[in-house]
Amino acid sequence: MNSALEKQLNLLDYALASLWRRRLKNSSVLVVFTAVIFLVASFHLVTTALTETAGAVLRQTPEIVIQKMSAGRQEAIPVAYGEQLSRLFGIKKIVPRVWGYYFDEPFQANYTVLGVDPAAMPMGEHLVQTLLAGAWPGSAANQAVVGGAIRELLALSVAPPTVEDDFPDHSLFALHRPDRSLKLLSTVGVFRDETALLTADLIAMSLADARDLFQIPADLATDLCVYVHNPAEITNLARKIAAILPDTRVLTRPQIEQTYRVVFGWRSGFAAVCLLAALAAFVILAWDKASGLSPEERREIAILKILGWETADLLLVRCWEALIVALLAFVAGCTLAWLHVVFFEAALFRPVLVGWSVIHPPFALTPRIEVKDLLLLFVLTVLPYLAATVIPTWRGAVVPAEDALNG
Amino acid sequence: MSMNAQLVIEGVGKVYRVDEQTLAAVREVSLTVKRGEMVAVIGHSGSGKTTLLSMIGGIARPDSGRVLFNGRDIHTMNSDQLADYRCDKVGFMFQFASLLPMLTARENLLLPAAFGRSRGKPDGRAEQKAAELLALVGLGDRLAAYPAQLSGGQQRRVAIARAFMNDPELILADEPTGDLDEETEQDILRIFREYNRQGTTFVVVTHNRQLAASQDNPRVVRMKQGLLQEEIGPA
Ligand SMILES: Nc1ncnc2c1ncn2[C@@H]1O[C@H](COP(=O)(O)OP(=O)(O)OP(=O)(O)O)[C@@H](O)[C@H]1O
Ligand SMILES: [Mg+2]
Hints:
The complex is a heterodimer of chains A (407) and B (235).
Chain A: H1 3-21, H2 23-58, E1 64-70, E2 73-75, E3 77-78, E4 91-104, E5 109-115, E6 131-134, E7 143-146, H3 148-154, E8 172-176, E9 182-191, H4 196-199, E10 202-205, H5 207-214, E11 220-221, E12 223-228, H6 234-244, E13 248-252, H7 253-291, H8 295-306, H9 311-342, H10 350-353, H11 371-398
Parallel strand pairs in A: 5-10, 7-9
Antiparallel strand pairs in A: 1-2, 1-12, 1-13, 3-11, 4-5, 4-12, 6-9, 7-10, 8-9
Helix pairs in contact in A: 1-9, 2-7, 2-9, 2-11, 7-11, 9-11
Chain B: E1 5-18, E2 21-34, E3 38-43, H1 49-56, E4 64-69, E5 72-73, H2 79-89, E6 90-93, H3 105-114, H4 124-136, H5 152-163, E7 170-174, H6 182-197, E8 201-205, H7 209-213, E9 219-224, E10 227-231
Parallel strand pairs in B: 3-8, 3-9, 6-7, 7-8
Antiparallel strand pairs in B: 1-2, 1-4, 4-5, 9-10
Helix pairs in contact in B: 3-4, 3-5, 4-5
The structure holds adenosine-5'-triphosphate (ATP) and magnesium ion.
Magnesium ion (MG) binds next to helix 1 of chain B.
């Protein structure tokens, strides 16, 4: 075998023996190091996954939403308002939407009910991509698509939308109209877990069914969605709409995204600061631990020097030691983070990042691991540790070896 | 300088500074050692014996004077060359315990062999050599023992064996038999004499007059308050 390689193997061997000898100290460093990497990696995975999920969902939302305001509160908007905008250039389509909140007494749960007419939406055929199973409600009445959390809560199964029999099965559930009468709905689809951030508690149905459930007259809707030809014109169009319909509030998608980002960004920023503090504490700890070479370590360095070891060899051993600890911690920390995010739904971070009240039901995160993220994490964690352990040895290795001679 | 002067020490001095005080541990010492010679260094405690040895071994740097090994001033070498000198040319026996506690006796012996730049080793040769040397000092059955599992004298013998690992031209031994019983001491001295007969040069610090006196070619030098004086060998 090549002698340079042979030498590295010997040094590695020595490093392992040395690690084992100080296993108590090293395993405590390993545990702390792993925990820090675990936290940082989990946090990173969660924020990227959330940002992506949110972005994907928001892309489906209409460019402009018009809500009727009365005395500073939102109220139902006449569908006819849309006709007043027909002379505006650049509008692709105006689609009425009915939505509201429904409190399910027996389960003490809040649902969001959304009534839309996919056929009327410009990208309507794409909506089926948000479904895990089943189909979007067709023209038939009393069909619904539910979010994963509701499906679980009500133990619903998905009925094939084509089969139309009145035989009650597990796809059926009932909601109360305001007059306490029951409205029976058949589950024809379930939303994908990836969209759970917005759909977990959602029940989507046709516009007519939603009006029926909330008992809203056919000429009214909750709001009007405006789809435009040119996204660059959104703000401009919104201003014109507001001028034509003075009693409305006009929301644009950039505004909605902005609001969302501000809230989310603040939360993640706060968490990031906490994590950076933890990271800094670790670096200081590692530095402190490593820079004070113990007398025993100084002696070891001195003896090895007298036996003819070069300073470079001493540094290499230290490098190997630090690298082994750091890589172990890195791999363990990243693996734990992945498990934490994917299988435990980021249990540690959910309260901080999304807030209990915003999203109560479980939602699945599908983080993507990117090489550049791993590299960044590596640079942020492993390199400081390497520096913190190797530099003191280097300083120790340049001091004379006589110390070992006098006992 | 004669052809067979292996080690030439010229006016070497070493001053230690502790706080404001200075202490001349070695003063203007000159000594020439021929290849294959055995020199015993005696002297009171604190007279500068260890300090002198460390300057010969390239461990401590002298404040004045030169140390020539085979005609080359070792203290003008760069640190890598010096490391090679310590590794290849010199076998150093410490006055005090010098085994690494996390390694077995066998691994402690492999330390000088395993990591030198020029060595391409642990083929079986170094392993075998380590086993032979440990057997030579009577520890053939304690290869896998850790220093903590060995007696003080046994640890001392491991350290003695280690100094021979790289077949050094020069052995620097600092009271090598200090804590050995008389019988073991005789064994060790026999080993020294055997190596010496084959050409290895020895500079041995000892309080034991007998070591110096019992040599075939006794040469004894005495350190006294940092100064060195040649003793006339007792016949
Ligand atoms: N690293 C050091 N720093 C300061 N003073 C030192 C150092 N090493 C040795 N000395 C001093 O130098 C003098 C010579 O020390 P040295 O160790 O060479 O003596 P020695 O002859 O080996 O003694 P012993 O027989 O007790 O081992 C002593 O007075 C000692 O206190
Ligand atoms: Mg001494």
